[in-house]
Amino acid sequence: MNTLPDFFTSFFSKLPQPPVWLISEGHNRIVLLLNHVLQQEPEAMQRLARQKGRRVKFAWQQYTLLLTPTPVGLLAVASQPEAGMGNVDLLLEITDTDISDLSQKLMRGDKPNVRIEGDVQLAAEVQWLAQNVKWDLEGDLARVVGNVSAHNIVRAAKSVEAKLREWLAK
Q1: How many domains does the chain have?
Q2: What is the mean pLDDT of residues 160-167?
Q3: Domain around 80
Q4: Does 51 share its domain with 88?
Q5: Is there a single domain that holds both residue 58 and residue 93?
Q6: What residues contact 126, with CB distance under 8 A and at least 6 apart?
Q7: How far is residue 28's CA from residue 7's CA, in Å, rounded to a whole number?
Q8: How far does Cα 112 stand from its chain's mean position?
Q9: d(Cα 85, Cα 33) in Å, to the nearest integer?
């Protein structure tokens, strides 16, 4: 019997590898979003500035993202090492392989299983960032559509999220 999670796993495993330029542009967009969020948190930028030049590799299956903090406390895409850990100071690899299980876990608000390898101090800083830096989506939306509309959009999105979590719990 085929279930919906099996369908998604099968579907994503059959997708072709995107072209290099598309992956590069995706990485650049991720960094732009992360830097936008970081600029709203001066303490986060100070913490990252102390780690300048270090290399953090995020990995899930065949997908990787290699970042390095800049001297001003923002992030930049780092060049890929040749093989293995190479010149990477910290490796954070999501070990959950099933996309449907991982999606359900994230929708419930649970954290994925992560293998951590490398510098302990850098890992502690990344953990602090993950726990303390949050995107003020409503504030950003308010600049575009106004305060009331932004509040209503966020409230509606939270309602949809709650219904999805309730549905997943069943």
Answers
A1: 2
A2: 78
A3: 4-134
A4: yes
A5: yes
A6: 56, 90, 92
A7: 30
A8: 11
A9: 26
